[in-house]
Amino acid sequence: MRVGVVGLGYWGPNLVRNLHQLPEADVVAVCDTRPAALDAIIGRYAGVRGTDSLDALVSDDSVEAVVIATPVSTHHRLALAALLAGKHVFVEKPLAASSLEATELIEAARRGGLVLMPGHTFLYSPSVNLIRDLIRSGDLGEIYFLSTSRVNLGLHQTDVSVVWDLAPHDFSILHYWLEEMPTTVAAVSRGCIIPEIPDVAFINLAFPSGAVAHVELSWLAPGKLRRTAVVGSEKMVVYDDTSNEPVRIFDSGVMPRNPETFGEYQLSYRTGDVVSPRVEATEPLALEMLDFCTAVRLGSQPAASAELGRDVVRMVEAVDRSLAAAGAPVPVAVSGAVADVL
Amino acid sequence: MRVGVVGLGYWGPNLVRNLHQLPEADVVAVCDTRPAALDAIIGRYAGVRGTDSLDALVSDDSVEAVVIATPVSTHHRLALAALLAGKHVFVEKPLAASSLEATELIEAARRGGLVLMPGHTFLYSPSVNLIRDLIRSGDLGEIYFLSTSRVNLGLHQTDVSVVWDLAPHDFSILHYWLEEMPTTVAAVSRGCIIPEIPDVAFINLAFPSGAVAHVELSWLAPGKLRRTAVVGSEKMVVYDDTSNEPVRIFDSGVMPRNPETFGEYQLSYRTGDVVSPRVEATEPLALEMLDFCTAVRLGSQPAASAELGRDVVRMVEAVDRSLAAAGAPVPVAVSGAVADVL
Amino acid sequence: MRVGVVGLGYWGPNLVRNLHQLPEADVVAVCDTRPAALDAIIGRYAGVRGTDSLDALVSDDSVEAVVIATPVSTHHRLALAALLAGKHVFVEKPLAASSLEATELIEAARRGGLVLMPGHTFLYSPSVNLIRDLIRSGDLGEIYFLSTSRVNLGLHQTDVSVVWDLAPHDFSILHYWLEEMPTTVAAVSRGCIIPEIPDVAFINLAFPSGAVAHVELSWLAPGKLRRTAVVGSEKMVVYDDTSNEPVRIFDSGVMPRNPETFGEYQLSYRTGDVVSPRVEATEPLALEMLDFCTAVRLGSQPAASAELGRDVVRMVEAVDRSLAAAGAPVPVAVSGAVADVL
Amino acid sequence: MRVGVVGLGYWGPNLVRNLHQLPEADVVAVCDTRPAALDAIIGRYAGVRGTDSLDALVSDDSVEAVVIATPVSTHHRLALAALLAGKHVFVEKPLAASSLEATELIEAARRGGLVLMPGHTFLYSPSVNLIRDLIRSGDLGEIYFLSTSRVNLGLHQTDVSVVWDLAPHDFSILHYWLEEMPTTVAAVSRGCIIPEIPDVAFINLAFPSGAVAHVELSWLAPGKLRRTAVVGSEKMVVYDDTSNEPVRIFDSGVMPRNPETFGEYQLSYRTGDVVSPRVEATEPLALEMLDFCTAVRLGSQPAASAELGRDVVRMVEAVDRSLAAAGAPVPVAVSGAVADVL
Known about the structure:
9-stranded mixed sheet, alpha/beta, 6-stranded parallel sheet, 2 domains, Rossmann fold, globular, Dihydrodipicolinate Reductase, domain 2, homotetramer
């Protein structure tokens, strides 16, 4: 797969490096408006052409696929241009700045028979997949609730809120694990440093299955926290990707002591072993790029599908609507319903 | 101060022990309907009379003050009987099962010139007071937000929700630190084990000062968490009363790099020392009982005032209203306004 | 079993409490020279007689067994008096102030057909027994080495060194786990606060099986550490009795990649699951007292046998000899050899 | 400073990268016998010549200084060749395979007026220097003892023991902090995986000042530990370079309650604040390379002096002698005395 990479800021060079290491892919061109960014890549990887013109890139017949790592506001315009030129497209998360934009991209990809894949890297994390398997296999039982904190000191974005910056991570994971969209979202936020740009948000979600979830996001915190607790009826899991033991499974729970007399609430507490399963050390980004290649080559559906990417955008939009409504719970448009309308 | 203690379940004996150790107090009588509970106390402390009749206790002239540690639903009846009999009253948290009940107790105490004190023990925690001093002195700067988790596996109550059980702790602390009532409260909960009794709740609060807060409560969790982060414009604090270092002060923050050009959002991140100040090891319960004695003797206002206790009940009621309204943000009646009406 | 308890300082009252809760035992008398210590016990437990005379206690026909919790220097005298009076004896660790004293006690017990049991409480810890089972079953493979730290700020003893105070814990555990005596011991120590009383010691031990061990002991430390690593050829274990997960089993190790070419040292590193097995929460002291009762009633050998107690004293003596020899490794007299001589 | 780098295994490329980033230095040539290793560097850094001949490198007039990152057994031969050719030399730790070799290198450097610097990177760690300042300023008081653990699962060396591999780190730090050589060293070790190559060692050290130290080293451990406790009469410090808070200062200690009656050992325990000072995030390797450049340019003494490097080798040799003597304490030759002899 011959790839052109657009956007060589913080994340783009990581994508170039991972594509370069992949036997299945070949980075043939990079595109950025800053000459120094182009030079850094061209000087490091032999045979890569540089250009400051997206048009040049997308009209280059040797380019089969375009990887986009630019600010969110440009995703729609760049991805659409690439799709219309017949290129497969990978776009960094979030897929687009609105679900309407996302739908237009999905339609364009469908019409062109092209792959459109959003960069939800966490779906390629071995830890996230291990927990997904635990949920799917029923080992955790019914999922009662999830609680997650993704906070750190920095790095403040000046073009998007902490919700657009960080929530796509947690929302894509929740979507991937629960395989359902939330029915309602309610959120509180504050722009502590720059009043008009929320840098802390507390988001409550309710799902059709009965599961509830809380997502705490912040660029202002005493320390880094990446902690997700998943509480099921059979077992509980704590996921912390900053830990040496990123997945911990607690064989703990509460059960009616005597099922027949459940109404009397004689409860029994069970506290069993705690297991930290070995987690593969594979870099998620490498697996993600490989999934993109495979989708292009074989026409398979990537784990991070465009539809999932749009669902994530819908969840973020719902947070914004709740914030605009002073924290009122708002419904989240479901994937199917919206697709029907189009 | 000669005290009668009503209710010898889990908490009552702790109160008896602390009162017994206090030179200022004398436990003269205990009241419970279970003979074994009475015998255990009488056998251990010489000179304590036991009775199964509240009437006997409150009509006993040798009793000056009554300490109540019974289920919430009985607080109003028992406390009112004691106040009408001219006794000073200490009631375990929450003060009453509704703010209306709380107001009736406050009025009865005011009419009788008696002390009415709710048992918000955390207001006597040296850690909580150390953080209060940091806030009051301005060391933390403007309080941007607070995030707190109070979760554990168990112990499910069967008469009240996790909100009525645990939120009074966090709400009393927030009230004590911020010295303001929230304007609105929005919450999500679920009864995972017993459907009609919420055992997990995610509560968002917004305060007049601009501060926002999140409170996570649960009886279902992989492990015990007691963690409160307070993020101010100058410093941040983490309070964890299960830690050897219960208070940690982070000299960290974000500032505009160049105040004149604030509009351009050139931000500067500051990460300085982290200090765990020494915290006195005094038992909060002993300080609480002493404050009750002092209030009775000197007519002083206890840190845990009846008005604060009623405000806490109002916050819990607001959570229940939000839950009944499917998570909608609801206003919290402010202390003054309601008092005016009465 | 009717018991008399001698010594009501810090530890004695704990023994009284545990014996009192045991259906198999009955505390009939306590002995101490301090009237206040006697009164505290007599006032709390009905039917217990107090005396300041050991003679009175050991000549009391209603006393079957004597439990001794006095300073080490008095163990030999008190235990011998009790044994000679025909009483079964439990002595707090260490069994005696020298192995010669210990041997005299063992002989006296043997002649009288009496139980003599040293108070090595850790041998009744569910965690210690869980690890013993892992070792005995071969799950850990060959034991390569152990490393243990038992440090804290305080409490300085003024009559014995940190070695006599703390090493009996670790030495009894090592003896119980490895079921062998060390061949040599070498140690370094320092009396930091009181020059003549070592308050920090670093002890190296070598065992006949090839296992080596390090024991770090100190009353001077920034914080409390209770950490023992056991490294076996198949698995590794960390034991920390201050943790919520006191036993952690690491399925990790190093193996020759190709056994035939072992000589070329192609090594393969294995890092598997980490498991924190559930550990029973039973109080070791209760199990210890029960084992003493059972030994008295049935004539069974307690897990903490007098011979093990003497072996522990021999290990401590060897440390003292190494310290006196400027840290030279010294042999540890083996149990059998010494017994043969007697 | 124009530099040639010899040895492009694991560490050499890191040195090339750091030298490349340093304005003061210019990597002009690299030397390795493996063509692939040479190609990797030449392909990455423009203007770097590759050679497989040390003779070619040291006879290259454009090379002023040689940086050596090869196995220990080759240090002496390579460094001596470079020094005799008039080049300044930086050698990775340990300086040489014996103190005799180290002395020959020191003599050769002295005769040639050249810089000879061993690669003790930890001496350039901001944390290590912060603690050194605390010791030098007297803030910690008298240094009572140090206890350090440097253990991990892997990476087994097949040419040197864990002592030669890891002890130079801790020994250089101890030398740098205490500014004295130990008088005696006593050690126990075991070759668990490869019998003739010790992979675990417990080392006790005694210093002229009265300080004692323990150093635990292992390639076999359940997890990574990098923990050093420094216990002083005024304060205590824990250094853990794997932590977000690598230096923690405990204002704790024990003091005679009443100095006049010190003989009676009335002790008072002090537990004050714990402070984690902010530590600069500078990469030690960059500071180390800069110090080498400065020494070459200005003739200054680097913090990691050749004499310190030889002292470290003497300490490691003493460990080997103690191991050969079954753990007996052995004296460590002091720097001055040996220098006098030469």
